[in-house]
């Protein structure tokens, strides 16, 4: 059974940076495509970045390009999301997700989810 555990959320000031981590267990990381989603109060869940199982392909919505970066460490079975120039509207619960098919993540669905970590951007 694949398990995903996020960490690294917290309170950060506007303009600041934060790196989220996702510990993956149960399978080697390169068995799955991976993604980060977020959900703000009263809003629909949003896929903010995904990476293919080989690491060769990444995707970001145009609205987030340049501020967020997904990465992984296959030796440690870890996935990361580096977030820079954070804005109050980035406040949300952030979820690590995985699926055997990259296209599913691109479409906004995933077979496996972490429990989420809260990110609050506020002064």
Radius of gyration: 13 Å
> Please, how many helices?
1
Q: What is the string of helix and strand elements?
A: EEEEEEEEEHEE
Q: Whole-number average pLDDT?
A: 95
Please provide the count of β strands.
11
Question: How far is the first residue's CA from the last residue's CA?
Answer: 40 Å
Shape: globular
Q: Label the structural class.
A: mainly beta
Uncertain stretches of 5 or more adjacent residues:
none
The fraction of residues assigned to DSSP E strands is over 45%
| Biggest beta sheet summary | 7 strands, mixed
**How much helical structure, as a percent, in the residues?**
under 10%
Report on this model:
This protein has one helix at residues 102-106, and strands at residues 3-7, 10-12, 18-25, 33-39, 46-51, 58-59, 68-73, 78-83, 92-99, 112-113, 117-121. It is mainly beta and 123 residues long. Strands 2, 4, 5, 6, 9, 10 and 11 form a seven-stranded mixed sheet that branches. The longest helix has 5 residues, at 102-106. It is globular. The chain starts with a strand and ends with a strand. The mean pLDDT is 95.
């Amino acid at each position: 059974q694949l398990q995903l555990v996020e960490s690294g959320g917290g309170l950060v000031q506007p303009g600041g940076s934060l790196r989220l981590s996702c510990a993956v267990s149960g399978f080697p990381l390169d068995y799955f495509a991976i993604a980060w989603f977020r959900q703000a109060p009263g809003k629909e869940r949003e896929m903010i970045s995904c990476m293919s199982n080989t690491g060769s392909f990444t995707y970001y919505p145009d609205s987030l390009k340049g501020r967020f970066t997904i990465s992984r460490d296959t030796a440690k079975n870890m996935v990361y999301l580096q977030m820079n120039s954070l804005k109050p509207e980035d406040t949300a619960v952030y979820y690590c997700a995985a699926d055997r098919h990259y296209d599913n993540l691109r479409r906004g669905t995933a077979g496996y989810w972490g429990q989420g970590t809260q990110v609050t951007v506020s002064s």
